[in-house]
Design goal:
About 40% of the residues lie in helices and about 15% in strands. It is α/β, with parallel strands linked by helices.
Length: about 375
């Protein structure tokens, strides 16, 4: 098999390695100052990115490597979780990090936010949190004698929704429009969110006290679910020593500017996908709807997310085209949290069974083989 046969016959033109904006080049670790709050609510970044030539696959891989190396300074022994988090950021997809308390879920989200020059807000989800605490609400201005919209913490480039399943379903639903459409509607008025906009939610297993399972529509808006797991003994000892006197996350500096982060996302979306590979992704999602182990299979949105994530995965590895291997590598992370098991399993057991069901679907769907030209 020749993997290059999945690439376009006429490669798309790519930007030369020196075509990045002045003073904003990936690799020299130059960082722009954060934008003002007013700027963060506008789509100015998207407009600027659209007018600039896209990055090459090598430049995307370089930017991703800078982010991953930076995050590794505070997340010890979890390269796969870091790689998946960066991949989903490049794919412009939201991430759900699920595991037991104390294994670094929030730290991973904070490290990602700290690695780019962008605004970041953290929302601690609790049972008494209201939807307006997330989106914002009209506040009466005594001076003007009028109601003015006060933006909530959702108005940021990176939003960390900590312990999302400890809030009520009513509050969880406040994220639905934000995550899908990149906007907030309050009192009949729609407000656009920052660009780029990325939600990283952490979740404790659903069989823990005081948690509420996320609705299917909510889970389906997360591009991938990441599980941290306990660190190895050496890495756990390293963590104990490193955090004895100080918190390493406080010294973490951005290594990619906001403009470059937006360009990484836009450029990764231009990665080429052959028809055979797209058909493979669709066949895989359809196979989940026919599985006897599942009562609810993956949605069409899941297939879209799978292809977008595979584009970013390929770009992260320095390729301008997607291979079936990329689809296979991400299938469990992108699909497993969306399906509903036929058995009544909960918690870690449910995660394991869902992963096994996706693995069975992968085995049942033929892998496309390129035809030699």
């Amino acid at each position: 098999m020749n993997p290059s046969q999945y690439s376009p016959t006429a490669p798309a033109p790519t930007a030369p390695a020196t075509s990045l904006p002045t003073g904003d080049r990936i690799g020299d670790q130059m960082v722009r100052a954060p934008r003002s709050r007013a700027e963060a609510h506008r789509g100015s970044t998207a407009a600027q990115v659209g007018a600039i030539q896209p990055l090459t696959a090598d430049q995307i891989a370089t930017g991703a490597r800078l982010m991953m190396d930076n995050m590794s300074r505070v997340i010890a022994g979890k390269p796969e979780a870091i790689r998946l988090a960066v991949t989903m950021f490049l794919a412009h997809g939201h991430v759900l990090i699920e595991d037991v308390p104390g294994v670094g879920k929030t730290m991973l989200a904070r490290a990602l936010a700290a690695s780019i020059g962008a605004s970041a807000k953290r929302i601690q989800f609790t049972p008494d949190l209201l939807p307006s605490d997330v989106t914002g609400a009209p506040i009466f201005n005594q001076q003007t004698r009028q109601f003015e919209f006060e933006p909530g913490p959702i108005f940021a480039n990176v939003v960390i929704a900590d312990e999302i399943n400890r809030a009520s379903p009513r509050t969880q639903s406040a994220l639905l429009e934000c995550m899908e459409e990149g906007q907030v509607t309050v009192e009949g008025t729609t407000y656009p969110l920052a660009t780029p906009f990325h939600v990283v939610a952490t979740q404790n297993p659903i069989d823990m006290e005081g948690t509420h399972p996320l609705a299917e529509a909510q889970r389906d808006r997360f591009m991938a679910r990441i599980s941290m797991g306990y660190p190895g003994p050496d890495h756990e000892l390293e963590m104990v020593k490193a955090r004895d006197l100080a918190e390493p996350i406080t010294s973490l500096k951005p290594v990619v500017s906001l403009m470059d982060a937006a360009r990484l996302i836009e450029s990764a979306r231009r990665t080429y996908v052959a028809d055979a590979v797209a058909d493979y992704a669709v066949a895989l999602t359809r196979a989940t709807r026919q599985s006897g182990a599942l009562t609810l299979g993956a949605s069409p949105r899941a297939g879209i997310h799978l292809v977008r994530a595979a584009k970013a995965w390929a770009a992260l590895h320095g390729r301008q085209y997607v291979l079936p291997d990329d689809i296979q590598a991400l299938a469990k992370s992108v699909l497993a949290h969306r399906v509903v098991l036929a058995s009544p399993a909960r918690g870690p057991a449910a995660m394991t069974q869902a992963a096994q069901a996706i693995k069975a679907c992968l085995a049942s769907v033929p892998v496309p083989v390129p035809i030699a030209g």
